[in-house]
């Protein structure tokens, strides 16, 4: 088994890389998806969030109102840290279970654990390689505003709430430059896959 940590800031193209590696044969585990699962209705995670942030962040159907919660945490560092203290341990536990299941299904699996907040979460995994999707602040702002329709001030707050690019690059074993074309990003992902499969055969 090879465990690859994939990270990158918001709108860095990380999901595009993850999707391509999954198409090539990797087992993709998405920490964002896990973070949704651990706060589904009836979970201890959602109960803890309601207790800390109040019922204003709970939708009428009993699910988490992500927009309401986002408005709170991206404007308040302490609130964001409180949320992380609730969600990150639960995500780590679920992630470990998914990794173990993938390993049990295929001892030679290449597992790509897609973790946007890898730097911030101080993830305990022993990764064989850490891959960082890297794009300039200007590129990421443009993507958030143009592709996602986000207000420019909100887009800037989302970027600034995450680790800096230098902090991510400091932990990188491999950097995939996503500032260019989609084809260039996909080509780099393919080169990475070739390297991983060569190591697996060796």
TrEMBL record:
- Tell me which family the UniProt entry assigns to this protein: Belongs to the CoaE family.
Specify the pathway: Cofactor biosynthesis; coenzyme A biosynthesis; CoA from (R)-pantothenate: step 5/5
User: Could you tell me the keywords of this UniProt record?
Assistant: ATP-binding, Coenzyme A biosynthesis, Cytoplasm, Kinase, Nucleotide-binding, Transferase
Catalytic reaction equation(s): 3'-dephospho-CoA + ATP = ADP + CoA + H(+)
The name this protein goes by in its record: Dephospho-CoA kinase
Read off the Gene3D superfamilies from this record. Answer: P-loop containing nucleotide triphosphate hydrolases
Protein's job: Catalyzes the phosphorylation of the 3'-hydroxyl group of dephosphocoenzyme A to form coenzyme A.
Report the EC number(s), separated by commas if there are several.
2.7.1.24
Q: What class of enzyme is it?
A: transferase
A GO biological process this protein is involved in? coenzyme A biosynthetic process
Query: What is the annotated localization of this protein?
Result: Cytoplasm
Q: Where does ATP bind?
A: 11-16
Give the source species.
Answer: Mycetocola manganoxydans
Instruction: Give one GO molecular function term.
Output: ATP binding
Segments crossing the lipid bilayer: none
An example Gene Ontology cellular component term from the record?
Answer: cytoplasm
């Amino acid at each position: 088994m090879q465990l690859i940590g994939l990270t990158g800031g918001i709108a860095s193209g990380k999901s595009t890389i993850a999707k391509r590696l999954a198409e090539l044969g990797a087992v993709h585990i998405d920490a964002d998806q896990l973070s949704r699962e651990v706060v589904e209705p009836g979970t201890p995670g959602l109960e803890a969030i309601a207790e800390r942030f109040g019922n204003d962040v709970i939708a009428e159907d009993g699910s988490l109102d992500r927009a309401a919660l986002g408005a709170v945490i991206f404007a308040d560092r302490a609130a964001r840290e409180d949320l992380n203290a609730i969600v990150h341990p639960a995500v780590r536990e679920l992630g470990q279970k998914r990794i173990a299941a993938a390993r049990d299904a295929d001892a030679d699996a290449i597992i790509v654990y897609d973790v946007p907040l890898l730097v911030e979460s101080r993830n305990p995994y022993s990764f064989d390689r850490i891959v960082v999707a890297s794009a300039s602040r200007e590129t990421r702002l443009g993507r958030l505003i143009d592709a996602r329709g986000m207000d420019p001030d909100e887009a800037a707050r989302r970027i600034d709430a995450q680790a800096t690019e230098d902090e991510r690059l400091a932990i990188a074993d491999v950097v995939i430059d996503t500032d260019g074309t989609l084809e260039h990003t996909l080509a780099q992902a393919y080169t990475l896959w070739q390297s991983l499969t060569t190591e697996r055969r060796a």
